[in-house]
Structure formats: structure tokens, C-alpha cells
Amino acid sequence: MKKIRKGDEVVIVAGKDKGRKSTVVRIFPSQKLLVENVNVVKKHVKQNPQTGNEGGIVDVEMPIHLSNVMLFDPTTGKGGRVGFKQLEDGRKVRYFKSNGEVVDV
To answer: What is the pTM of this model?
Structure first.
């Protein structure tokens, strides 16, 4: 079980987009995340008429490391540390360590 999953609301805590809040789009095996509208870079793309690619300079989202994001806690309005605990019915869930509130329902 991962502390941050696809679709989670996260806060960027390091880098050029520090302080921004966004959603996780994809998680890579190398502990990197693709976060929506974060770490956008300019990429030069070559023209390819076979695929209909026009070419030029394109904005592309690049992955950032897992350690540079924190899960967004709606009660505090900031990023929070996440832990795991076992419920009475046997389910393993994520919870915020600051207030003990369960993330997964």
C-alpha cells in the first residue's frame, strides 16, 4: 500500500512549484509522480507528417520525486504526514498523523 495514490490531492513542498496544490495523474515505479500542471517544461518537438505532429515548442508536464509532495489535509488546509493503521474490521487504511483522521473511507 502506498502513502500517495493516483487521484490524491497533494501539496508541492519543494522545487519551483512550491506551495501549489494539485492532483496526482500517474505514479512511476522509480518513486516519481506526474502531477497535474506542475513541473511544466518547454520541449522542442520535431515535425512528423505521418503522425500529424506539427512540431515546434510544446509545454510538457514532467515527473517530480515522491519526497517533494505531501498529501493535502482538508481540515488543516496544509500538507500532512501519512501513516497506516488497522481498523476494527481488519481493513488497513491511511491516516493523517497530525490529527488521526482517516484518509480512506
So the answer is: 0.83
Instruction: Transcribe 5-59 into DSSP letters.
Output: -TT-EEEE-SSTTTT-EEEEEEEETTTEEEETT-SEEEEEE--BTTTTB--EEEE
Taking the C-alpha atoms of residue 32 and residue 48, their distance in angstroms, rounded to an integer, is: 30
All structural domains of the chain, each given as residue ranges with its CATH number in brackets, are 9-96 (2.30.30.30)
Q: Are 23 and 8 in contact (CB under 8 A)?
A: yes
Segment 54-88, tens digit of pLDDT: 999 999 999 999 999 999 999 999 999 999 999 99
